[in-house]
Amino acid sequence: MSVFSSPNKSKICLPHKSSSSKGIFLGDNPFRFPTPLLLAQLSLCSFFAAVLQFVLLPLGETVFAAQILAGILLGPAVMGKIHQFQDLVYPSESSYIGETFSIFGVMLFLFIVGVKTDLNFLRQPGRKAVAIGICTFIVPLALNLLLALIVRHSVAMDPNLHKSLLWVASFQSLSSFHVIVCLLADLNLLNSEIGRLAISSSIISGTCSWFLAMIIFTAKQSMEGSKQDTLLLLFFFVACMLITVIYVLRPLMFWMIRQTTNHKAIRESYVIAVFLMILGCAMFGEIMGQHFLFGPIILGMAVPDGPPLGSALLTKLECIVSSVLVPVYFVISGARIDFSLMHSRNVAIIELLAFLGFLWKAVGAMLPSLYCRMPLSDSLYLGLIMSGQGIMDVLVFERARQLDLISPESYSIMVLSAVLFTGIMTPIVKFSYMPSRRYAAYKRRTIQHSAPHAELRMLACIHYQDQTPSILNLLEASNPTSKSPICLYVIHLVELTGRAAPLFVAHHPGGRSTSHLNQSDHIVNAFRIYEQQRHGNLMVYPFTAISPYASMHDDVCALALEKWVSIVILPFHTFQTIQGTEGSANSIRAVNRNILKMAPCSVGVFVDRDTQNSEAPLSASPDLFSIGVIFLGGQDDREALAYASRMAKHPNVSLRVVHFTVPSNNQSYSSEQEHDIIMIKEFMNANGKNELCVYQEEVVKDSVGVVTVIHKVENCFDLILVGRHHAKDSPLLVGLKEWNEFPELGFIGDMLASSDSNCKVSVLVVQQQACVDGNLLDTPEYILEQHSSAIVDMPLSLVK
Hints:
The protein is α/β, with parallel strands linked by helices. Helices cover about 50% and strands about 10% of the residues. β16 (about 770) and β17 (about 775) form a beta hairpin. α5 (about 160-170) packs parallel to α12.
């Protein structure tokens, strides 16, 4: 028997009912039992949220908009059934079963948000970010409160709204760091210039907003108590929790990290210990009168971000929380939205405050940006981003409703306003703001057009430590000398895990390292040692970029533009490790393709096939390093030849250029062919006296002849250079398009790098700078100037 107390203190006895169904074959209706209902609720919430994300994300909407919309549409139906079930089975005032799951999910979600928050931004955020953050907090708060006071005294309204209007205006003016970061991630703008500024600014505004909300909620709770000095006691216990987390739990987590050796996963017992800390902090918050979410937020901020602890916690929690538990919370939040409570006058007043709160945030962000001479368009986009709302705002609205600071009607309208304005703003930003415009170079940045004895600036990208030796050998083959030194920028690209904001670190000699940069230190040390061995012929500037793969190209392109780099070297996404196994990552391939599309300079994709033998320095090897160039014509082949011409000056390098031509009696040449011939002649003039340089002309009729010749000579080299694209409409390429597995390598590069190929040598596929100031290089405005030397009409002879 189950015994329940009714409101008039009488007791009701009901027969005990099992929580699990015996099944439809034994006559039970599964949906009249708690367990099947719970599973159905979880499944429907997750599935419907996933479907809406699949539909809305390509349209520019955010994950928040998709999930809250799923909650609004699904909430009344799902929670209505649960409510009906409870009335029949459990006529008590206990919480919904699904709501219990949602509460647990929100607790873990806010813990994740604390873990991802990088408080280091508060130490040196920059004057511009501080000004924008403070203005984004003060301007909307002051103007919205002023407007609310005016409306209260001039417009007739419902008494409940009149009482809560100032709170509505205040909560509509708050902002959140996590909301801005999630918005930037959905828009793929985390690494953009505006994205980094928005992250630094939102840390300031979000911290101020969070403290204001905490003070308001704590003060409201203290007023409801019958004892005196309740407010002081609440703040005392808050201080006790902060001290415990900072001086007890945080040092304990650092001890866990020290016990974890490099490149090893953190122990399962440590993860369980952190989970117990989460539950303990939540329980302590409830005991002392704070919301149960307060403790996990504080603990999450104390967790060291990044690997090994922060990333391990996120790996275990983030997927299940964001995909299952958070959608349940949004469904429950959507079920609380009651359209029948909304009156047109109240809707108009709250929507006015919501819209102007959105507008004041944008103005607050734009004013200091314009004062700092940021372009008007960039200031506008920054203001729109800083005005975004998300799950943290819904949580604040929900807490305010629980404390009767706002009415259920105001809560419903405020949640709908957050969805409406954020849903309108994000597609505008996504489809109109193009961060790649800032990568547009206004001058040629290629090896071909560099001065013969000028410093060559290169940027090498490294994803894994195993790729370091082969990049060093390629650098050695590039022949840094005192007359033509090399300035090398090395960027270690690391996937963003365990933190919300991307990180870009410049490694200075003698600088301090952190736990998440240990692997970078090994890479940096290798290049530092090589720099010392070159005695001033080479300068190395290492960086580490921790960012999501979707926007990782922004770091590379921005650095290439800022440092006036002539060529970026990218490792091919399929690579050979030192152990001899092949690794592949489609995400790295996507990064490479984005860089090829947006880079402000030339790009080389390096297919390494010689990692196992690359430990010995090139200059110390007794054998010549043999390089081959496959030349079919076109600007990319000319760039590859220009790079190889520089390598040919190395004393331990032998070079052979294989030039493919078609038989023709026509002595007239196209503009592209004229440039090819000029380039060949320049190469011959520069290397005519070098016995280690050989020019070989092959006359072939079609692609079959090209493939035949390449297969004969491909394994005669240690490295092959080839252009990504070749002369347009060349008969030598007919038939090769059907076999192009990796378009980023071009037709010939793909043939050489294919796993089906017998080619066992490394390949460097070169793409010359694609555009200048947004215009393609092969347009008439950017055709190469004619050299003063005459073009020889007859084919170049074979040189041995």
